[in-house]
Amino acid sequence: MNKGFSSVLNASRWFAALLVLIGHARHIVLVDFKDVQNKDLLAKGFYFLTGLGHEAVVVFFVVSGLLVGALTLDKWQTRSAPGMADYFIHRFSRIYIVLIPALFGGLAMDYIGTNHFDAAQLYSTSGQYHVVSGVIKDNIDALAVLGNLAMLEGILVNVLGSNGPLWSLAYEWWYYCLWALAVGTIFYRGLGRWISATALIVLMLAIPNEILIWMAVWLLGVSVFYYGRSNLPKPHPIAGVALFLAALIASPLSLRYSADPPMFIAFTRDFGLGLAYSIALVSCYRLEKPLWLNGLHAKLASFSYSLYMVHFPLLILIVAVVEDKFGIGFVQQPSTKSYLYFAVIVVALYLYGFLFSLATEKHTFKLVTLLRRVFFTRCSRLS
Fold first, then answer.
1. Of 1, 161, 165, 332, which is most buried by a Cβ count within 10 Å?
2. Element (DSSP H or E) covering residue 274
3. Burial 253-268 (b: 16+ CB within 10 A, else e)
4. Across all residues in the chain, what is the average pLDDT?
């Protein structure tokens, strides 16, 4: 990929992470839009922008399909057989170097909040605030920890504590596994093919249909890579980006008709948005010049995963502490003070996500190198 397209991907990653974060922050700091007393132009624009968190996750899925699915397949096509061990070492390192400390860090924050700052019952009656599904304190136990470590949140266990964004990580992980097994079924020969095919069928039968269906959105990222580098006609970048922006505007507006639509409707909406974003990426695939502020895009994208993983438990703890100690309640009406409170929280979450990444995400390649050395050295000794 050239520098221009890489710049577009970096901008997409960090901006999607920002949309998720500000969506969560607005949801807990300010009242829902239907309860806003003064629906002026500022409030309408603010609520629209902070209501795109789900759409941002769709963007993440497409980018993941491109960077993981397509680039891995392209690399394997030059070999006699897929390098499964190396693939899973890279995927494990990328995910778990952040996941493990994020889980236990979030658990510690939820424990502190539950036991010391629950005067407003944010942790004990979470449902009344429409912040997280279920009750936070009921999802803090050993089973939830083990289930989330095994990527079974939303399948056999709830997300751990308050960290609701973990649901999409489970989707990602199982897409990695399904993709590797599908590719192994195609490229392997003999026993390796049968093992891959059998494992693929078992996994497809074991995981929920919703995860399988939404993999179509992830696969759009794979199509972007192969269409982008082909000689097939491509739209102008302005047209591609305009199409995506139109879909981005239409997606949340569809929720006015049903906040909890049937699975088919929800999938159609997400797939349509993912397709529009994929077309925008294809239109930008051969951009030669990087975007303005390219260095900033790369820097902000470098810790977008960490930010996504750690922001929610800290957000919940901050508003619980501030309400308990200073009497500043959450779910406020929009005002200068509440907007300022919102902005301070967002900055604090960004700072925490960045510092967290310096101890975790930044060292992903070191972990990959270590695991490759341990695994392949042991395999060579056994052989």
1. 161
2. helix 263-283
3. eeeeeeeeeeeeebbe
4. 91
Instruction: Please tell me the distance from the alpha carbon of residue 164 to that of residue 147, in angstroms, as a whole number.
Output: 14
Alpha carbons within 13 angstroms on the beta-carbon side of residue 189 total: 2
**Nearest one of 54, 48, 260, 6 to 165, comparing CA atoms:** 54
DSSP state string for 315-372: HHHHHHHHHHHH---SSBPP-HHHHHHHHHHHHHHHHHHHHHHHHTGGGHHHHHHHHH
- Pick from 218, 225, 136: which is nearest to 177 by CA? 218
Integer Cα distance of 334 and 104 in angstroms: 34
Spatial distance between the Cα atoms of 340 and 317, rounded to a whole number of angstroms:
18
Q: Specify whether the backbone of 121 is left (phi greater than 0), alpha (psi in -120 to 50) or beta.
A: left
Q: Under the phi-then-psi rule, with left for phi > 0, alpha for psi from -120 to 50, and beta for the rest, what region is 327?
A: left
Q: Which residues of the chain have pLDDT under 70?
A: 79-82, 126-134, 255-260, 378-383
CB neighbours of 85 closer than 8 A, spacing ≥ 6? 375, 376, 379
Structure tokens at 220: 């759009």
Q: How many CB atoms lie within 10 A of CB 249?
A: 12
Cβ atoms within 10 Å, residue 283? 22
Model confidence pLDDT, tens digit, residues 327-348: 888 889 999 999 999 999 999 9
Q: How many CA atoms lie within 13 A of 76 on its CB side?
A: 23
